Amino acid sequence: MLKIWIVGRGRMGGAVEAEIAACEDLALAGTSEYVPEADSIGAADVIIDFSHPNNTRAVCERAARDGTALVLGTTGLSDGHRQYISQAAQKAPVVHSANFSTGIAIFERLLAEMRGVSHLFDIEVVEAHHRYKQDAPSGTAKLLLAAIDPENERERIYGRGGMGARGNEIGVHSIRGGTVAGEHSVLFLGEDEVLEIRHSAASRRIFARGALTAARFAAGKAPGLYSMQDVLWGGKDA
């Protein structure tokens, strides 16, 4: 049985804990708001962190120290935080994603297929989340941007509205309000036609299930940095 330690007792941490309780192959090793100083976390096979960027360094250092698999879903990370993740991945398997839903992973793959024709369209990204989400644009919006334009060849214009040709710009629009779990759309606006790819999350359960799928994947893997593309389609000796 795979033992999971959850860092973060917020909404996502609670959703992950509830999903673990419903899985016969998983057990909850413990939960904490921060990385505990005691070695109790050492009993876990996988650490799942959906807490806060302030915890990222300590979580990565603990995973690296013990070689414990880490599933990291915290958003709002800086380049410094990503450096901690890269360092941890040298000594432990780390699955890092801004969004762990299966649908978003498929969305990302579809956008990668659009790269060759993206120059034919103006592109707009629209994302909406609940009123409590702190970062904007969302980590998922940035993930989708990277999928369609990995070389950053287009300028990102955040929060832009209005009409007119975008040229070499990708507009990114963030909406915050209510209890929206997460909605993301990418619009390809061409001459006399519009193609829209859209994903809507009905609850946080989809992210929790995806994180546990990632945990099963990561357990026993060689050290390295993995994505949901690796988890779902295989990669790096999956």
From TrEMBL:
Its main location: cytoplasm. It comes from the Bacteria. Homotetramer. One of its GO terms (cellular component) is cytoplasm. NAD(+) binds at G73, T74, T75, S97, A98, N99, F100. Its EC number is 1.17.1.8. PROSITE patterns: DAPB. Residues 3-100 form the Dihydrodipicolinate reductase N-terminal domain. It is found in: Cytoplasm. It catalyses: (S)-2,3,4,5-tetrahydrodipicolinate + NAD(+) + H2O = (2S,4S)-4-hydroxy-2,3,4,5-tetrahydrodipicolinate + NADH + H(+); (S)-2,3,4,5-tetrahydrodipicolinate + NADP(+) + H2O = (2S,4S)-4-hydroxy-2,3,4,5-tetrahydrodipicolinate + NADPH + H(+). (S)-2,3,4,5-tetrahydrodipicolinate binds at H130, G139, T140. The keyword Cell wall biogenesis/degradation does not apply. It comes from Candidatus Alectryocaccomicrobium excrementavium. The active site is at H129, K133. HAMAP family: DapB. This is 4-hydroxy-tetrahydrodipicolinate reductase. Pathway: Amino-acid biosynthesis; L-lysine biosynthesis via DAP pathway; (S)-tetrahydrodipicolinate from L-aspartate: step 4/4. It is an enzyme of class 1 (oxidoreductase). Pfam families: DapB_C, DapB_N. Belongs to the DapB family. Keywords: Amino-acid biosynthesis, Cytoplasm, Diaminopimelate biosynthesis, Lysine biosynthesis, NAD, NADP, Oxidoreductase. InterPro entries: DapB_C, DapB_N, DapB_N_CS, DHDPR_bac, NAD(P)-bd_dom_sf.
